[in-house]
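Chapter summary example.
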Amino acid sequence: MQGGTQLRLVMRRGPQVDRAFPILKDVVMIGRDAANDIIIADPEVSRHHSRIVQQPNGMLTIEDLGSTNGTYVNGARLVSSQALTPGDTIGLGETVVLQFQAAAGDAGTTVAAPRSTYQGEAAPAPYTPEPGFAPAPSYPPPAQVYQPASVQAPPQAAVPRAPLPQTGSLRAAPPRRSANTRNYLLAGCGCLLLLCVLCVVAVWVGDTFGGAAFWTVPPMSWILDLVRALGLESMLGAG
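The structure predicted for these 239 residues follows.
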């Protein structure tokens, strides 16, 4: 700044209309991120949107930093660095418009200086909105309908059922004896009967053909003892 001239950007359209942003550094960063020198909280503005650089000859240039919605100077989208003169409009996307101004005055007042006070050029033309920067329509926020959370009933514990009474037709049938058990009993009885018959036949044969000496030799003496134990001695007449 020379001779009390202050360079600044004034917001003509956006979230803070008529706010002035003084340019106090050689490099001024513009964007939505809090680390920028000029912070503009608008969804059309990228986090690091553009920057203004003061050249060695005192001229200010602006360049886009690869923003999503682009940077415009006097309605033309930037494709490279471009010099700024007082009165130029800077568009950030389609919703934010800034005007580059050179202001003169003391610390207590800020007065817009004519263009002739900045590098001997003509006074800036009054600001008129560019055709390509029509303000976006504003819509009221959607009403929020309160929806109570669904209430689920607590799970109920299962109630045990009482056993059904047994009627005469539903009584459990007595266990049936296995057919194998009966067969085993019959086989055992048959074997015992056959053994008895064989003993009797042996006693009869020995008594008939061997005489009394036949019964003194084991195992015939054992068989004779068995016959006497079974009470069959009278039937054979063995003595």
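To summarize the output: The two ends are 160 Å apart (CA to CA).
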